[in-house]
Design a protein that fits this description.
Largest sheet: none
Helix content: 40-55%
Distance between the termini: 85 Å
Radius of gyration: 38 Å
Strand content: under 5%
Oligomer: single chain
Length: 192
């Protein structure tokens, strides 16, 4: 028989997507869930009754011994403190395991993928010396790299040459005649 005509075949137009899951052999998880849910509610009701009812009513039910009423307040209070202490412990461990600000591990680690100066094998242009330039080719699909922090600083915080910077500052500071203003505009626009 051809399996492509079966309704569960992927080639059948009636195939369900996603495929139907196999039937569970046991309904035990449903019963366990119901028992856990109902017992939780029953225990909570007993806790509330124990905390609220007067002693005479509890004794009239035939219960001769039960914990002191102070535990009705202490258990929730201890639980809240335990939860807050857990949050504080995780915060303290994270703070303890954090490197110092002047540590090199805040910038790079052993898993950093810094390119070498060797050209890549699969480039569509002639291989260059700088791997960043070969990855910038229009048809290149570069590998993911971590850019060294020195290169990032050079790009972000590069300063103008001292002579040009001096001219620009002196032009801004001077309220000179029109010919000097024109020279300042030329310097600021980048023309020489």
């Amino acid at each position: 028989m051809d399996s492509s005509n079966e309704p569960t075949s992927p080639r059948s137009p009636l195939a369900p997507y996603p495929p139907n899951s196999a039937q569970l052999k046991s309904r035990a998880p449903e019963f366990y869930g119901f028992v856990a849910w109902s017992s939780t509610y029953a225990l909570f009701c007993l806790y509330v009754l124990w905390a609220i009812l007067p002693d005479e009513w509890i004794l009239s039910l035939g219960i001769e011994w039960y914990p002191s009423r102070e535990w009705a307040v202490l258990l929730p209070a201890y639980s809240v403190i335990l939860i807050l202490l857990t949050y504080f412990t995780y915060w303290a461990l994270a703070l303890y395991n954090t490197s110092a600000f002047n540590s090199l591990s805040t910038i790079t680690d052993t898993h950093a993928h810094i390119p070498t100066s060797k050209p890549e094998r699969h480039t569509c242009t002639s291989p260059g010396i700088n791997p960043f330039l070969t990855a910038a080719a229009p048809c290149a699909i570069p590998s993911p790299y971590d850019i060294p922090i020195g290169l990032v600083n050079r790009v972000l915080y590069a300063r103008l040459p001292a002579q040009t910077q001096h001219r620009t500052l002196s032009c801004r500071a001077s309220n000179a005649n029109p010919s000097e203003k024109q020279a300042c505009e030329t310097i600021e626009s980048g023309e020489t």
